[in-house]
């Protein structure tokens, strides 16, 4: 493990209007860590990631990536970052060839290199036959594979992944999990945001749980288990976010539906 943190966040706060979304997040993240970044809907996970990526401004606090303060205006650090967004923000009218060579060139590969690499990676994930087809014709899983390839084509050192397995079939899930483990073993840092607790539990070396804009747990799965009386990450999540009403809510929901009789 590197001595210097790859990402260092000090007292990060962020508000949208009068709503305080992040209430003082401090973190140090090191090379080779797979961080499971979890929390309830609206907890502030995407906001944290978008701030780190330079996509959202107006925060307070200090963020350093590879030792460089991201508020300095330098874009150099972004070359070392890969990002799989939660929602598909790809240009549907382009083909994978056009999209991936464009992304590759943005990150400094030449056209020939980007084309070769893109074709090979598409082939490895079983979608080479649509390389020259418009992305709009892809299935959900195909689009997700394309997003994963585009986040990795420039061999980044830090990966931010938001629900990266969304829409992937069971075989592809196994390949992607293996790729992530392999990249972490090479010293890359992976920031993995997901609501699928059993996957987070298995792939993360460190789990950070945020609730209402604050970190409420930070440690390996085993460490979290020791601090909680619960067994699975899903149960720890429920406990630490103070939630135990799933049965009650489901029951009320079904009752409401049944009040309408044809
Ligand atoms: N551009 C915006 N303008 C106003 N409020 C926003 C904006 N983006 C996010 N928010 C608010 O900030 C809060 C945190 O949102 P964020 O997307 O970071 O949550 P999240 O933890 O990623 O949630 P999810 O698990 O649902 O993806 C929410 O209350 C959301 O409504």
Automatic annotation (TrEMBL):
Protein origin, superkingdom: Bacteria
Pfam families: ABC_tran (PF00005)
InterPro entries: AAA+_ATPase, ABC_transporter-like_ATP-bd, ABC_transporter-like_CS, P-loop_NTPase
Domain ABC transporter: 7-237
A GO MF label: ATP hydrolysis activity
Transmembrane segments: none
Alphabetical UniProt keywords: ATP-binding, Nucleotide-binding
Gene3D superfamilies: P-loop containing nucleotide triphosphate hydrolases (3.40.50.300)
CDD domains: ABC_DR_subfamily_A (cd03230)
This protein's name: ABC-2 type transport system ATP-binding protein
């Amino acid at each position: 493990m590197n001595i210097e943190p790859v990402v260092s966040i000090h007292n990060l706060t962020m508000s949208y209007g009068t709503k305080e979304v992040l209430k003082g997040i401090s973190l140090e993240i090191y090379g080779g860590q797979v961080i499971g970044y979890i929390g309830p809907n609206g907890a502030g996970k995407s906001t944290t990631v978008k701030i780190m990526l330079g996509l959202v401004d107006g925060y307070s606090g200090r963020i350093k990536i590879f030792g460089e303060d991201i508020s300095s205006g330098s874009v150099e650090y972004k070359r070392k970052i890969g990002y799989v967004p939660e929602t598909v923000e790809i240009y549907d009218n382009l083909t994978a060839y056009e999209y991936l060579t464009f992304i590759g060139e943005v990150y400094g590969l030449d056209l020939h290199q980007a084309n070769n690499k893109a074709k090979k990676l598409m082939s490895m994930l079983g979608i080479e036959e649509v390389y020259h087809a418009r992305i709009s014709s892809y299935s959900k899983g195909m689009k997700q594979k394309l997003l994963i390839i585009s986040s990795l084509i420039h061999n980044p050192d830090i990966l931010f992944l938001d629900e990266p397995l969304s829409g992937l079939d069971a075989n592809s899930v196994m390949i992607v999990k293996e790729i992530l483990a392999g990249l972490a073993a090479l010293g890359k840092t992976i920031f993995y945001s997901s609501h699928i607790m059993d996957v987070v539990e298995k792939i993360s070396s460190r789990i950070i749980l945020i609730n209402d804009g604050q970190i409420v747990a930070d440690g390996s799965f085993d460490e979290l288990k020791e601090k909680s009386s619960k067994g699975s990450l899903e149960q720890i999540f429920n406990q630490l976010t103070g939630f135990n009403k799933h049965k009650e809510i489901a029951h009320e929901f079904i009752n409401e539906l049944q009040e309408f009789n044809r």
